[in-house]
Fold this sequence. Notes:
single chain; alpha/beta; Four Helix Bundle (Hemerythrin (Met), subunit A); Rossmann fold; 7-stranded mixed sheet; globular; binds 5-S-methyl-1-O-phosphono-5-thio-D-ribulose; S-methyl-5-thioribose-1-phosphate isomerase activity; Methylthioribose-1-phosphate isomerase
Amino acid sequence: MRVNGTDYRSIWDQDGQVKIIDQRWLPHEFRTVGIDSRDEFATAIRDMWVRGAPLIGVTAAYGIAREMGRDSSDAALQAAYETFDATRPTAINLRWALDRARAELMPLAPVDRAEAALALARRMADEDVECNRMIGVHGLELIREIAAKKPEGEPVRLLTHCNAGWLATVDWGTATSPMFHAKNAGIAVHVWVDETRPRNQGGLTAWELGAHGVPHTYITDNAGGHLMQEGMVDLVITGTDRTTAQGDVCNKIGTYLKALAAKDNGVPFYVGLPSSTIDWTVRDGLKEIPIEDRSGREVTHIQGTLEDGSIGCVRVTPEGTEGGNPAFDVTPARLITGLITEHGVCDASTEGLASLFPERSA
Ligand SMILES: CSC[C@@H](O)[C@@H](O)C(=O)COP(=O)(O)O
């Protein structure tokens, strides 16, 4: 996507270096940074310099590639796998990318691993871009159908939670891809952007949508239910960090409440995801998906632009108050209208997923 007139992906390699958009500073400042050592890659994922399920998977693949450039032994490959695997527990794309890298590299002679690992990381990045583009192509049809029933010029009003935008993937985003495609197709849309406390990923979504000229309004996390009751939301689209084989969706904390409100108000609730986010080994999301518990400081403190233009952090609670920070929740399949994947749109169910991915579901 374009930033200040230049096309960017969220991760790329250039002159032997892996570069990322350092998301700690957005939406206040756009900064890129090179990452190299195993510890830097692990820190970048754990501390959310990069974030979003698809992007952390590709970052880990690049991390393996850099490590193989230094030491391509079996032991180094396994150690890098374990280091990255321990960074964030919920998004399955991380494990998916690591499993794929280990399975491709282990059978090779160590001398061939560095080149193969870099080729694999690049391939994964390209595949992610294409998957997300296709999610946009399929999701666009849902928006088009709603637009066709509206009075001329009235926008389709979407709501999204967290940032499942291009910053959370390599490009396009999942939930945002249909929005960008709608904008490109000349369909009027307006997006309600959930703030998404505690880390305010909604600011990233607002930054992305603004840069692409998509009209949007930043709202508190608590406003969505009210807007749905008032008939001001036509469609909800979110992303996901792990979707089970029966269609349960784990995503950023608060997604479940949006799905409940959508169900109560008859608002269609869709989830955009590449198939790398489907965990075919689990069925019951509530019982089987580990929920990341992050630092309470992310809740008690908040970062923003200060009056003097610098980026600063303030405490919003009384000194000494502890913050609780479960980072994800699970929305049961019964609350989800459909899943938008690179293969098309399906029901959030075992049968729905099997219809699009027959080889995998078997
Ligand atoms: C396309 S990204 C899908 C999800 O990863 C996204 O909705 C999300 O929950 C990101 O959480 P984060 O904690 O910011 O990594």
